[in-house]
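ok so i was messing around last nite and threw this chain in just to see what happens. nothing serious, just curious
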Amino acid sequence: MRVAVIIPAHNEAASLPRVLGAIPRGLVEEIVVVDNASTDRTAESARAGGATLLHEPRRGYGAACLRGLDHLRTRRPEVVVFLDADCSDRPEEMPLLLEPIARGEADLVIGSRLRGTRERGALLPQARLGNRVATILLRLLYGGRFTDLGPFRAIRFESLLRLGMVDRDFGWTVEMQVKALLAGLRVREVPVSYRRRVGRSKITGTLSGSVKAGVKILWTIGRYRLPGTGRSFGRP
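result:
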């Protein structure tokens, strides 16, 4: 398969070289790092690691992912993998995400940190609680059986385009899962490893970040149950 990787990065110069160095290059056609308004040397780290560097001045995880997606529209890979830049995920486990897609069994594969092995302190209590609440709501409202909203995931590119993703910040991952369920995509989870990130999390590392993320995630889960929003997907 032709595989591309999108890595949103905000001030991740310290961790990005390790992330890029661990990506299985034989599996990946292009690595796209989206510098999301960094004030450190993230851009230099991306270039040194051989990645395609893009800039997204509007802060937000989803904004960076959308910028990378726009870039790939002219490349049309078969699969896109999303990977965090903080070294908490293990890029060498990418084949675990790609295998169900390659076998024709899935369109979207979520790397579950809850089902895999975790370093002590890697997944903070507020993150575990948020995941628990969100996944319960996804099951009750949409019938989706998830254990995690993990950012390490792979999806068929054409399927992703059809979802018409719009969220520009904390709701990106759960928006993808909700829309995948509504669109009838074949969704799987696979266990992945998770380790303590390099530096402090921009979301769960602060009380305000945790609250903002939690509110946005819950709002995103609920909004697609409103009349007229359930299947408002974009065109490829």
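not much to say yet. The helical segments are 16-22, 42-48, 61-72, 94-102, 125-142, 157-163, 172-182, 207-223.
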